[in-house]
Design brief:
The chain is of the alpha/beta class and 470 residues long. Helices cover 43% and strands 17% of the residues. The strands form 3 sheets. It has a 7-stranded mixed β-sheet with strand order 10-11-12-9-8-13-14, with helices on both faces. Strands 5-4-3-6-7-15 form a 6-stranded mixed β-sheet, with helices on both faces. A 3-stranded antiparallel β-sheet has the order 1-2-16. A hairpin with an 8-residue loop joins strand 1 and strand 2. Helix 4 packs parallel to helix 5 and helix 5 packs across helix 14. The mean pLDDT is 96.
Length: 470
């Protein structure tokens, strides 16, 4: 493609660019109206269709659709509506004595035309969640959802077309070429949720236009279980967090690192909870989902085949089925260090279990890998918890639980280094889509004028006085 005007999305981009200041200068009430319209669409008008689309794309149970998709979006909207007036205000800051006669403040202004590229695992939540922040901050937005969940993407397009005009918010469907074309346009901000590998591609494309980015990526989120914890409760929470959405969650426990003295008991408790959650045959349970595509199914089965070839111990209650893209909740122990399950982010219903002798050994194991999006620690020991928090790095952490930090809109959500750049949710999402513009307003005569040229001995003394005392 030689000219920007040849880009198939250039006209749409230009339409939003031409309208960006109208949207940016929209009032608090106008933004609330848009948020209310989106909330009503998700919570009322299209609620049943959303659950149906998720069932078709991911086999997602209705309860999970309600709690991990609809509830999250509605919660994000409600939180924004509660605090938006406060977020939009200019923030006064102190002015030094050397600038006497001035006042200073931060003006939160929209970045402009934004691109939101969303993933397939929580298609509605991870599309409309960032959109709430973009609207709250006064931006226009073009959305590119994943092609891997076609029913959800088609329905989201219908919702967007119903709620917004395309010079404010537009959704385009397509595959990799669509994303490639969009990334060639000079967006002011790009919000991407997906894998670290694709995140690097997004960042390179953004660099061509020096666009700011928010990258919500992933990684191997560890779950550390020490011998002081209540194993029954820990296993219950870990099995819930790991196998919800069939393990296809960026913040799900990717591997458990367990004190070797409690390994067998931990595995027994996990197996017991899996049976309670999903019965002896999860394939017949209406509480358990499916793998998103045949390609992802084959990738996960290759991990299990690698584990078998290396004589790992595999705990699975039923056979996998390629036709329905079903893989039973699976625990894997006694893995070699070079097993693929311990190298790559799993993003599926398989939990590797590794052991440690000392806490220092566990921390070294965690720190030898890329910094994760989340880290979970189960312990009754305050000392152990403090040691873990002080000697590891992660985007977010739960103590004696997992996953739930995502649902607190008062907390920043995001990764660090390989697991992401920037934060989202609530105020942090508003900031991600805003430019914090520094403003100094001169009220009266400025004493800085005393130091204007021509320079002389008096002004040199005044400059020295300023350095020392002001």
């Amino acid at each position: 493609m030689t000219k920007m005007t040849d880009n198939p999305y250039y006209k749409l981009f230009q339409k939003q660019k031409s309208n960006q200041f109208n949207v940016a200068n929209s009032s608090y009430n106008q933004r609330i109206t848009k948020l209310n319209a989106l909330q009503r669409a998700v919570e009322v008008t299209f609620r049943d269709e959303i659950k149906e689309a998720l069932q078709k794309d991911l086999g997602k149970p209705d309860v999970e659709s309600e709690m991990t998709e609809i509830y999250q979006i509605v919660g994000e909207v409600k939180h924004a509506k509660t605090y938006l007036h406060q977020w939009m205000r200019n923030k006064k800051v102190k002015t030094p004595l050397s600038m006497l006669g001035s006042k200073s403040y931060i003006k939160y202004e929209a970045k402009g035309v934004c691109l939101i590229i969303s993933p397939w695992n929580f298609p509605f939540n991870l599309t409309f969640g960032p959109l709430v922040s973009a609207i709250a901050a006064g931006n226009t937005a073009i959305i590119k959802p994943s092609e891997m969940t076609p029913h959800s993407s088609t329905l989201m397009k219908k919702i967007v077309n119903t709620v917004f005009s395309e010079d404010e918010v537009a959704l385009v469907e397509g595959e990799v070429q669509t994303s490639t074309d969009l990334l060639k346009l000079p967006f002011n901000h790009i919000f991407f949720t997906g894998s670290p590998m694709v995140g690097k591609i997004i960042m390179k494309a953004a660099a061509e236009h020096l666009a700011s980015v928010t990258l919500e990526l992933g990684g191997k989120s560890p779950t550390l279980v020490d011998k002081t914890t209540n194993l029954k409760i820990a296993a219950k929470k870990i099995m819930w967090g790991k196998f919800m959405n069939c393990g296809q969650i960026c913040v799900s426990p990717d591997y458990a690192i367990v004190d070797e003295q409690i390994k067998d008991e931990f595995i027994d408790e996990c197996k017991a909870w899996l049976k309670r959650f999903y019965s002896d045959n999860p394939g017949t349970s209406n509480s358990y989902g499916r793998i998103v595509t045949p390609k992802h199914y084959k990738r996960l089965m290759a991990h299990l085949e690698d584990a078998k070839l290396n004589n790992a111990t595999i705990y699975s209650s039923s056979e996998a089925d390629e036709t329905s893209k079903y893989i039973s909740p699976t625990l894997v122990a006694d893995l070699k260090d070079d097993a693929t399950l311990l190298q790559d982010e799993i993003f599926g219903p398989i939990l590797p279990i590794v052991t440690y002798k000392t806490l220092d050994e566990a921390i070294t194991y965690i720190n030898d890998k890329e910094r994760p999006l989340a880290l979970y620690a189960y312990s009754k020991s305050k000392k152990n918890i403090r040691t873990i928090l002080n000697n590891t790095r992660a985007g977010g952490t739960c103590i004696n639980n997992n996953v739930i930090h995502y649902a607190n809109h008062n907390l920043p959500f995001g990764g660090i280094n390989n697991s992401g750049i920037g934060k989202s949710h609530g105020y942090y999402g508003f900031k991600a889509f805003s430019n914090e513009r520094a403003v100094v307003k001169q009220q009266t005569y400025s004493i800085a004028e005393l130091l204007f040229p021509p320079y002389n001995n008096y002004k040199e003394k005044l400059a020295r006085f300023t350095v020392k005392w002001l």
